[in-house]
Structures are given as C-alpha cells and as structure tokens.
C-alpha cells in the first residue's frame, strides 16, 4: 500500500496538469504598440573581442510608474535608448520615453531595478550602466529626482 501511494499521486498529478491548457498568448506589436528591440549588430569596432560584455543585454522593469493601477514596462537597451511604456489597458501601451526623459540615450544600459527608495509610495528606478570609453558614461543612473518630478507633473496626465 505504501508503494502504491506515490504512483497514484503522480498519476493524479499528471492527469490534472495535462487538462490545463496553456493560457499564454502572444500579443502582436500592432496591438501592444511596444516597438522596443535591443538589437546588437557586430561591426569592426563593436564586437565580442573588443567588448566582452556586448551580449549581456538590457533589462526589464514592470511597475506602476504613474499609480493608475496598471503595470507599466521599462526596457533598458545597450545600443538603443531605454523605453518607458505606460499601460493603457487591454495589453495596449503608450511610449512616453521622450516626454518622461527616461531614454538614457548614449549609455550602455545593462539592467534596471525598481524600489520605493524614499518611501513616498512612488516607484524609483536604478539603471545599471556599463560600456567602454569615458568613465562618466559608465556611471549608474539613479533618476530619482527626475523620475519623481516627472511622475508628479507629467505621468499622471500621460495615460489619457
């Protein structure tokens, strides 16, 4: 009887799990309006031999940046500018990167973290930066004051 229980448990588990259909659905760019692509193209000056961290990619942060109850998306890019998309609902997003001044153009962004660092109930971003060249262009970005001002002055109205 003791040997039969694990076999019965595993059998019931597989029967139940096989009945659940995959609920994930691919949302096309035409619907979501998300047009971010961190495409890294090698060249004579930009390649894995000259920069070993070339393919260590960007990052993604999901948070309610404008506190409207919908999760927004922030992408970081290496050779492309970062992008902030506000959730409009029904898997439709609006690119507010330029108006929110969160593109970080010219930086090799490696990732992003989001936390409410000052306990004001607004999400704050910390962007990890790397790359070759001028050390000033490798300093991590903590757009706390800029993002806080943007959130209070602009993002509340951007989702409309």
Structure, briefly:
This protein has 160 residues and is α+β, with helices and mostly antiparallel strands. The chain has helices at 4-19, 29-32, 97-100, 144-158, and strands at residues 60-63, 72-75, 83-89, 92-95, 108-115, 124-130.
What this model shows, in words?
Helix content is about 25%, strand content about 20%. The chain is of the alpha+beta class and about 160 residues long.
What's the arrangement of strands in the largest beta sheet? 1-2-3-4
Overall strand count: 6
Label the structural class.
alpha+beta
**Number of continuous helical runs:** 4
Distance between the termini: 64 Å
The portion of residues assigned to helices is 10-25%
Our estimate of the beta-strand percent is 15-25%
The biggest sheet amounts to: 4 strands, antiparallel
Task: Give the overall form.
Answer: extended
Instruction: Flag low-confidence runs.
Output: none
Order of helices and strands: HHEEEEHEEH
> What's the Cα radius of gyration?
21 Å
Report the mean per-residue pLDDT as an integer: 79
